[in-house]
Amino acid sequence: MAKTYKDLDVYNISFGLFIRTHRFTFQLPKYETYELGSQLRRSADSVNSNIVEGYGRKKYKNDFVKFLIYSHSSNDETINHLKKIEQLYPELSKEAEELKNEYDKLGGKLNKFIEYVINNWKT
Fold this sequence. Notes:
The chain is mainly alpha-helical. The protein has helices at residues 9-25, 30-33, 36-56, 61-88, 93-120. It has a single domain (5-118), classed as de novo design (two linked rop proteins) (Up-down Bundle). It is built from five helices and no strands. Helix 3 (36-56) packs antiparallel against helix 4 (61-88). It is elongated.
C-alpha cells in the first residue's frame, strides 16, 4: 500500500500532465487564456487535486472512491477541452492530441485504480 499520495502512479502521472497542460494553455491566443485556457487549467488541476483529496480520506473507502471518480470525470473534461483546441487551433493540434492521448491513458489507469480500491482497499 502507498505510504502517501505521492507514491501513487496516478498522482505522479496526473501531476506531470497538469504541469505540461498548464504551460500549453499559454500558447493559446490571448483572448482564450481566460476562457478555454482557464477551463483546461482548472480541469487538469482537478484531476490531480481530487486524487490528493481522496487519498487524504482513504480511511473512508467510499469517500476515497468518490474523489477518484471526480478525478476521472475531470480527466474526461480535460480530454474534451483538448479536443476543442485541436479543432479550433490547428497550429496547436499536434500538442493537444499528444496531451489528449496521455490523458486517455491516465483515464484507463484511473479506472483500474478505482476498481482496485473498490475491491481491495482495507480501511
